Amino acid sequence: METLLIVDDDLSLLESLKMHFEDIEHDGSPRYQVVTATRASEALRVAQEVMPGVVILDMKLPDRTGLDIIEEMKSLCGDARIILVTAFHDMETTIRAMKAGAFDYIHKPFPDLTALDIVVSRALEYRQLSRRAATVNVETAAARLGDIVGTSPSMQQLVKEIGKVAASRATVLIHGESGTGKELIARVIHNYSYDEPKPFIGINCSAIVDTLLESELFGHEKGAFTGASAVKPGKFEMAEDGTIFLDEIGDMSLMLQAKLLRVLQEREFERVGGVKRIKLRARVIAATHRTLVDEVSSGRFREDLYQRLKVITLQLPPLRERRDDIPSLVHHLLERINEKVHKRVTRVPPEVLDHLMRLPWRGNVRELENVLTRAVVLAPGEVLLSDNLPALEPTEPDHGGAHINGHPVHGNGHGGHPLPNFLVTQIDDPSRIPTLEEAERMLIELTMNVTKGHKGKTCQILGISRPTLERKLQKYGVRQDQPV
Ligand SMILES: Nc1ncnc2c1ncn2[C@@H]1O[C@H](COP(=O)(O)OP(=O)(O)OP(=O)(O)O)[C@@H](O)[C@H]1O
Question: Which GO MF terms are attached to this record (predicted)?
Fold first, then answer.
């Protein structure tokens, strides 16, 4: 039996959660023994006594915040997985919670206890796994929040992962299409990893010819090659005990891959033409728009280097898979662009935002930034105009009809409900096909819209149970207060 500690000052919630978890059985006997506490001080005392496997910890407690006691709780019973619960979405707190060592961060009210059950089971599974594996040292460090904008489920997940990554010094590999924010994420991880300022040194491995890249990375001694008139330290040296960011690592030649592998294995390197061994103290973060597993299969990337780099892998979602983030990104980028080009374009009419939400964004956030910069420069006043945006593509006709998540919808010819265009038009560009998750989210939003938020009817149409619908609404962050 696993011991579960639930900490909340809401007595009725505490009681109902206790009953819920006590009712869960495993192989015919109760799965959990549940203990409760209403204050932080009491929680710490009880935790020390019962050594819980999982702690469900509310953020707002009468004496201290849940966040404040995570570290103390972990030092008392380091093995416990802590799930922090709050009533609001807050990126800063999410990162701080994950960094302090929380296992997960969830929001209440819980629309469906199944979601909570899943998190608790997963927490226990991970605890089992990590008991077998080596433990990672959790550094504590205050850090500042970077400029990441986005509240879509995939971005929230990413923010959680950043919190965990920042707590370790492990090598990180960031995958993502061009312009998805790989460098930004690398900088945020860096900023969150240290208390005091440390160097962040980036280098684009695809932009420099091989021989030059080697001396850029590792430096060179005087006279190492023609033109090497003085000693020059490389990026690895300049990064000191901070971060070296190897951008577009997938484009590195096999010859340099072999050198890099040796450096990562031995944690030492020499300048080109030199003999002195220099210690590698920097943390390595690498990024690529290529799928490295495919590069490995086709022999263009060394398998052993890939294994070294992928200790922690982050996958950045393309912008078209998180279109809900476009409004907040537009707002954020406009502020930055106005400052840069000395303008004050602050108004984005709904039809212009709609236009922006429907563009394909193959170049992701960077393309959005470029498109907005052009439109800001061309704007005659303080209003952003559709005329200055790229035209919509024919597969996304501007028929002024209904939209789900920026995708136009139209009738399916059976006199029934409208369908998103992606389900009925011929798609010849693979990048325009939505992921299964995206399609599922759109169908749920569409059905909720058609039934005007009636969950019973939505379940009936989609052929799913109420708990499944609740779980998916929460997973995809679908607004339930008004028609979507
Ligand atoms: N989630 C985000 N929130 C705010 N700004 C973002 C976000 N993602 C990307 N950006 C901005 O978009 C621009 C491109 O991001 P960045 O250079 O990090 O992308 P990248 O994936 O490294 O691109 P490339 O592969 O082309 O080098 C930057 O100005 C960055 O600040």
Answer: ATP binding; sequence-specific DNA binding
